[in-house]
Amino acid sequence: FSRKxxxxxxxxxxxxxxxxxxxxxxxxLYTHQANASAIGILGQDVKHISGYxxxxxxxxxxxxxxxxxxxxxxxxxxxxVEKALKRQTNSAAVLLQNRGALCIGSDDKSAFSVARxxxxxxxxxxxxxxxxxxxxxxxxxxxxxxxxxFYTVFERExxxxxxxxxxxYDLKEVNCIIYSHTPYVKKMGLYKSERxxxxxxxxxxxxxxxxxxxxxxxxxxxxxxxxxxRAVLIEGVGAVCIGQNRRxxxxxxxxxxxxxxxxxxxxxxxxxxxxxxxxxxxxRANRRRSSWKN
Length: 294
Known about the structure:
By secondary structure, the chain is of the alpha+beta class. It is built from twelve helices and eleven strands.
């Protein structure tokens, strides 16, 4: 969002605070990048930036503060962002707990440079806290392309085994099914229990509770689990994700992988998932969005 074109009311309060607190900067990126979103769930500042990557402190500042989560994005979250920016007056980024990050620059090129550097630092920070992550090779620059190598895609019109998956296709507005075997999703499936969401993206797009079914489950069981969710974990296999089209189903897969990465850190560090009050707010927001579409 540039200062001159920033007209999205939902984030206007947060952006206005950033522009006011950083009067010399004219470009803001509100990102949902995977590594920054994951480490942000802890609600902790990232200190000693230069220790993670040479030159990173020149781009980000010596510390990246974290703005605590608030269920009202129009109100108190802006206050939290302002406090975070004022704690580190020379910082170019703020982690948004359970959401993502805010990256600030003089123009789009510098803001994207902040976002890329933050993601690299967050990757080092994540691997420092979650030793299992060192077994996983997910490049930062081409993460989406890498993730797609773990997908098996089926579309209604071309699925040669349509009958086997018909119970899933019979669900409302399902035209694409993807079996996802991405690294963090597979790890999350090993815990064999229902998982709650740590990040807003997953709650908005997929649902708050993620069911895990046994590896030998039937398609009818999968379809039942997908009635109130866009994804379901399959123990030892990965996940089944659905969408109206391939693009939507792939987005569900990407968000699920990011949510799984956050959940693994949450388990290691005993972080709490999104609160019930936050869930109620998100449910109300989803209902409002549905009414706007209609």
